[in-house]
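Batch queue: ligand-bound targets. Current item pairs a single chain with zinc ion. No template structures supplied; prediction is de novo from sequence plus SMILES. Inputs echoed for audit trail.
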Amino acid sequence: MPTILSHAVVPLAIGLGAGRDRVSPALLLDGAAASMLPDLDVLAFHLGVAYAHPFGHRGFSHSLLFALALGLAARLLAPRPRASRLVAFCFVFLATASHGLLDAFTTGGMGVALLWPLTETRFFAPWRVIQVSPLSLNQIFGAKGLAVLLSELKWVWAPAFAVGGMLALLARFHQPPATRQTESGVR
Ligand SMILES: [Zn+2]
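Prediction returned. Tokens below.
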């Protein structure tokens, strides 16, 4: 997996780029939490569940079905995050789905059960470029951790902020002329 914070960077960068009118601060936090949630499955190791088991690490919680379930939950809870139900669904679904998809680009571990329960096959992306994060804290804060961080800056943070920046530009471009004039001081 990329480190847990790098998973959250994806919805945070994209949500901030889309603007608080579209993605409210509450929905932004929901998306960040949803993007990190799949890795709670590491608890399965402590329960003796094998890695390759559907309920093991990178199993059902990394599937698109799990992302769909969280998206639907967010839709039902809207407007608590003060967002339209469609936006809440799409944002939380994509935030959760991004977790399994990013894991599929990593250089280690087993693949990701993206299509569970249709198949228990573990998938990897054709290009595995993100250095896999070690599971032990000692290694995360060591030399290995630095290599992982640099890899995530290049392959996760930079693309996420690039997309967020483009969304911010698009959002500004699509603002009503009256709003743009007011912001720039022309009244
Ligand atoms: Zn993961």
